[in-house]
Amino acid sequence: MIEEFLAGYGPAKVEQAMRQAAADEVMPRFRQLEAHEIAEKRGPYDLVTVADQGAERHLGRSLTALLPGSVLVGEEGVSEDPALLEAVGGEAPVWIVDPVDGTWFFAHGEPGFAMLVALAHHGEVLASWTYAPAYDEMAVAIRGAGAWADGERLTAGSPAPGADLTVATSSPQYISDEEHRRLLRLETEGVARRDTGSAGLEYLRIAKGELDSTAYTWESPWDHAAGLLLVAEAGGVNATVADEPFRVAGGNALPFVTARDESTARRLLGLLRD
Q1: Rounded distance, CA 163 to CA 59, Å?
Q2: What is the fold, at CATH topology level, of the domain defined by 2-153?
Q3: Measured between alpha carbons, how far is 157 from 59 in angstroms, rounded to an integer?
Q4: How far apart are CA 84 and CA 245, in angstroms?
Q5: Are 61 and 55 in contact (CB under 8 A)?
Q6: Rounded to an integer, what is the distance from CA 260 to the centroid of its chain?
Q7: Identical fold at 2-153 and 165-273?
Q8: Statement: the pTM of the whole predicted model exceeds 0.90
């Protein structure tokens, strides 16, 4: 059933569902949010808005209707009921959703946010969609069939010989001092490190060859599932410090690296392990 869905008009219908959710719930509120429509979850940098909540409900209705028997695991739903996360590795096809990835940017009127959707089964991501509504850019990846952005095939390629590696890492506001100190090991000759923006858009930059790598210290599947498949289908790689592929169902050794090519990943993992 999933194979038929992905081989037919299913991917296009997912795109339509995402564009409609963004048009109905997200973009009308962009730069229009009232103070009471923004709330803190775990601190001033971890925000949720009515747009996040409305878009996740919208996608919950539309996506599960497209694939009967599927379930949705979204950031906001798991925030209310952590037990929902168990479905990521379960028997039913699961839609892994971040309705507004980069809520801080959205809430502050900046365009660097995305809507992320991945379709997984038994913990394996089979397809993904990354939509940047403020730029009207859509990227799609189907396992084994490649990655595409607005009709153009994506190829991550390799960094230019001798150039500094550009790396986006977890922002210090969201992580422990110990995790931050570990990531600072990447601040060495030949590596240009910066704090991450929207994870989904950083993965898209890797797939397009505009960013060399990311190094992240958290494993929330809604932040990573879509982008990891996008990068993989563009020819990139990922690995944890235990030298294992990142698992969206959890239980990963952290931090983990995603990169345009194997040699870049190996170099950065070596620095993180020291």
Answers
A1: 41
A2: Fructose-1,6-Bisphosphatase; Chain A, domain 1 (3.30.540)
A3: 33
A4: 23
A5: no
A6: 16
A7: no
A8: yes
Q: Does domain 165-273 have CATH number 3.40.50.1820?
A: no
Write down the residue that tokens 């839609």 correspond to: 95
Q: What's the confidence (pLDDT) of residue 101?
A: 98
252: helix, coil or strand? coil
Report whether 235 contacts 155 (CB < 8 A): yes
DSSP letter string, 189-257: TTEEEEE---HHHHHHHHHTTS--EEEES---HHHHHHHHHHHHHTT-EEEETTS----TTS---S-EE
pLDDT in tens, 3-53: 999 999 999 999 999 999 999 999 999 999 999 999 988 777 789 999 999
Question: What are the sequence ranges of the domains in the chain?
Answer: 2-153, 165-273
C-alpha 192/C-alpha 49 separation (Å) is: 33
Q: In terms of Cα–Cα distance, which of 121, 126, 105, 119 is closest to 201?
A: 105
60 residue type, one letter: G
